[in-house]
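Minutes, project check-in

Agenda point 3 was the complex the collaborators sent over. CS summarized: two entities, 323 residues total, and the question is how they sit relative to each other. Sequences were read into the notes so everyone works from the same version.
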Amino acid sequence: MSFLQSIQDTAFATSIRESTLLYPILLSTHLTALGLFGATVALTDLRILGFAMKNRPMADVHNQFRPFKHFGLTIVVLCGALLATSKINLYWPNPYFKMKMSLLLCVLIHALVFRKSVYKNLAEFDRTGVVPGNAKAAAIISMLLWIGLVTCGRWIGYWEAPTLE
Amino acid sequence: MQQFAGYDPANNPLNTNEWAFPVCEVFHILGFILLIGSISIVDFRMLGLGISKQTPAQLVKDTAPWTLVGLVMILITGPLIFSSGPSTYVYCAGLLPDCYNRAFYYKILMLMLAIIYNWTIHRKVAMTPNSPWAALVGGVSLLMWAFTIFAGIFIAFV
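CS then shared the predicted structure for the full assembly.
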């Protein structure tokens, strides 16, 4: 725990933890940015699955939403990292925190796996009018991962550390 | 708690198991992602930031069904969350801010204003080609919805 403690004891982590305003402001920013990020992810995935923005080319939806996705995710991750480090001693033993971080890793793997075969080929799918199975799988997995991340995020707050006797 | 006489939250299913309440919160978050996120995409377009291949009007039409799905989700889960412990949000009968958790009071106020605003002024300006008001109306929309989220989070911190 000493390494975690030293992270938590850094001046900036301490100031976040001890400020009555900074912590909720970071949490609010985390969730506001999640609104923008989440919607662009959801609409892109729903477009690939044929449930949203059907009269727009998939490539257009993906490319035009991408800057917003990146902008939103950057703020989400930045605020999330600040929130986590401010109370890392509390979060690290929390199984839902570990699960959330594992899902975040899965999101990265998802991007690496499907980037070439799906997201770079959307214009091709638009031309042929056929959305292959792996593109649909990518969209479904992406939505499940993010719903899982939100769920773990909420559950982190309800886990109680076992009390030491 | 006079105004909730006869209602005991202890019997509310949201309080009799460990998962129902957080599940409501998760759906509340997913709901506002769809609602506020889809509206903010239109707002950024109205501000002239990106998504230049579509007009604001086309974007509104494209996203409207999912905005509505989000609205329905928050309007179901919000009152459910409230029902789990009304006395944490409302302290006495009346409409003055003193009777409420302050953050809750301003959240609900702004939420109602933002909903009305979105389906009246915002919709009308977004649907008008090259409206000179687009940037202002989009910017105000972003601020109103961000305020709603901030106030919602602050309920737990005031």
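Noted in discussion: The mean pLDDT of chain B is 91.
Follow-up: revisit at the next meeting once the mutant set is ready.
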